[in-house]
Amino acid sequence: MNIMDFNVKKLAADAGTFLSRAVQFTEEKLGQAEKTELDAHLENLLSKAECTKLWTEKIMKQTEVLLQPNPNARIEEFVYEKLDRKAPSRMNNPELLGQYMIDAGNEFGPGTAYGNALIKCGETQKRIGAADRELIQTSAINFLTPLRNFIEGDYKTITKERKLLQNKRLDLDAAKTRLKKAKVAEARAASEQEVRITQSEFDRQAEITRLLLEGISSTHAHHLRCLNDFVEAQMTYYAQCYQYMLDLQKQLGSFPSTFLSNNNQSSTTPVQSVSSPSVLASTSASLPSLPSVSNSMVTSGLSELKSSSGSRKARVLYDYDAANSSELSLLADEVITVYSIPGMDSDWLMGERGNQQGKVPITYLELLN
User: How far apart, in whole angstroms, are the C-alpha atoms of residue 261 and residue 296?
Assistant: First the structure.
């Protein structure tokens, strides 16, 4: 027998097997043939596997949306992953916003109240962007990858073996049908032998499938550990963001255009502020040891200081890093001497500490009696 004859016979046998399975499947659907039912334990395992696959896919896809809301960016990352190439590094949204703020602050002047505030906000946004990037990377490795490996690996193997089990069952039931229809003793003997063989193959395949399906419990345990890693990564991220914003809030205060403490009290003079009234109220409640001085008292003290050539003592409310050599760096709670000079910007005073002197922002100070 040459190889061509062998291939022809094999194709004919395969076609015969396929036709036999198709006939058996059709007759089962029409209620004209009996069907071997799987045992309850195996059915429960199959149901559990399908449920696991369904919810794993949903959780995985929604986690991807959470970590990367931009669908175009997700598609780009998917394409690069399939091409086995690294996606180009780009600024994320917080980093881009932070860079714009820093550039604007430098353009307006780091020595101005608004410019200085923009720079500090921009630096914080860039820190948040870096934390966001770390969250995405950690979650992808510790959470998304194991879920994807299950869908693309373990469950594909289960699906393949389950399909083989279905074919073995159809072969078994088709053999049983032929046995029932056999009239001649010789045909019955051949059919009985076929039933024994197909029954053995079906039982062996059922055992293989059962062992794979019982591994779903181990998959759940593994995914639980991955879920804990994801929660820990989120906790770290949100804690970092909270600390960054808390530090920024302490640095900025309310940044009014007149020398006012951050107590959110009404004033007869309109006050332009970086923060909205609701934010100022929450800031006032959360910041420790803020001065409780009425606006009229502080304004009158400032006016007196501006109009005279004298000096006053002032307590520093927040740390301040000098933007250039003309400014004086400050430490929270220290007491310095302040005075005004003709033509000076209304948002600044001259400050002295020992033999050091330089411009200081008035929003960082509390005048002392």
Answer: 11
Which amino acid is present at 105?
G
User: What is the C-alpha separation between 167 and 309, in angstroms, rounded?
Assistant: 100
Q: In terms of Cα–Cα distance, which of 201, 93, 216 is closest to 154?
A: 216
Structure tokens at 342: 């003709």
SS3 352: strand
> Cα-Cα-Cα-Cα dihedral of 303, 309, 313, 317, to 10°?
50
Which of 244, 237, 243, 247 is closest to 133 using CA atoms? 237
Nearest to 251 by CA among 321, 315, 313: 321
The residue count of the chain comes to 369
131-190: per-residue pLDDT in tens?
A: 999 999 999 999 999 999 999 999 999 999 999 999 999 999 999 988 888 888 888 899
Rounded to an integer, what distance in angstroms lies between the CA atom of residue 59 and that of residue 69?
A: 15
In this structure, are residues 172 and 198 in contact, taking their beta carbons and an 8 Å threshold?
yes
Distance (Å, rounded) from C-alpha 247 to C-alpha 24?
73
Q: State the DSSP H helix or E strand holding residue 368, giving kind and residue range, or none if neither.
A: none
Taking the complete model, does pTM exceed 0.85, yes or no? no
pLDDT, tens digit (0-9, with 9 covering 90-100), for 290-326: 343 344 444 455 556 655 567 889 999 888 888 888 8
Q: What strands lie across the sheet with 356-361, from one edge to the other?
A: 356-361, 348-353, 335-339, 311-316, 365-367
